[in-house]
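Hey, can you fold this one?
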Amino acid sequence: MKITNIRTPGLGDATYILSHEGVSVIVDPQRDVERFLAATEDTIVRMVLETHLHNDYVSGGRDAARRTGAELIVPAAAAPAYRHTPAFHLEDIAAGPFIVRPIHTPGHTPEHTSYLIVVDGEPLALFSGGSLLVGSAGRPDLLGTERADSLARLQYISVTRLAELPDEVELLPTHGEGSFCTVSGAGRTTSTIGEEKKSNPVLHFADAEAFVKAQLAELQPYPTYYRHMGPANLMGFAPMPATGPEQVSIDELDALADVTLIDIRPKQEYADAHIPGSIGLEMGDQVGVWAGWLLPHDAHIVLIANHDQDVEEAAAQFARIGMDGLIGVHYGIGDWTAAGRPTAGHGTVDVEGFVEAYRRGEVTNLLDVRAPSEFEAGSLDGAIWRYLPDLAQNMPDGLDGAHPVWVACASGYRANAAVRFIEQAGYEAVVLIGGGIPNVLAALQR
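Sure. Predicted structure:
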């Protein structure tokens, strides 16, 4: 039996391809199914398994099933609005040389179902979706805080049930490190039931009350686009767009109304000169996640990019979360400046320069845009905290417009994105890049 783990780092998720004796199944595919279908060559795709109605991405399950002729298996309690085979608790589904055994594991969502793979009567692997994770468990609050307590109690029963499986069963969760669907720091890849029984803190609580209290205490904010994913996956979403972004000229840019410019060039290039009002999201694994968090889900988008940047990957990240309003890409800002158009810019500073300025008392207007848990773990005296997604809604009180706003996060990525909102509020920005608050704190202690 071969299991291929295809990860999407920006989302912190994994899709799995299980192959055995010429038969394969795909587990929790995202919308861009080509990369998963390529991994099933020389096999017959018998099934596409969905563990739950995903809240963090658009599923490609229906499209993958259609293109391969496979059977689409969805938890019975999900009842999506398209043809599928319902998975009922402990009702085995034959997949040729192996058995797929659904285990109802509510908690992350009410319908959530894990799938145990049984070969010749022996349980070998568990696709646990958003139930039992490596070092954590799926969060219970994505359907609203009103249901979080009930779902957390269900999650306790579910993870406890899964821990009763044989120690050697391989644990293959969908959500992992980097996913906002986890309660706390989930592990990187995979594990075994035995290893999790030893080391996973969610399996070491005295009772359900202690588990629920811990689950609900550790919750952090999650992207606003999540609220669109469940309904989309319930009703069924269109396949992945077939073509990438087309080039947009200056004249075409002028003709566009109600468009958001996302500048994916390196942070320093954005700092040197950018189109006023554009948002700086340097190309990386989480361009799509942050665009989905900071912008309306139906936003019309034009990328500002360099010719050597992977705009196809940026487009794929938007499409994975259902943001299909990408109009095209404009390369660089050379044409913009040549046409005499105004540009904006801001200062940057590295960790060493920031520390020196801080010690001299020059950093009087410090804005920390990290997540709540990061800020609580330690920040600088006098810092004004506003998490980046909240900054997009309004600026915090206490900033002095007579002095530059020094903005920092953990690496410079979110601080760079914050510039748009700082500039729109009429402030001058100085961004800490190449490091962040933890680096500054460590340097100040030396």
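The first strand starts at residue 2 and ends at 8. Let me know if you want another pass with a different chain boundary.
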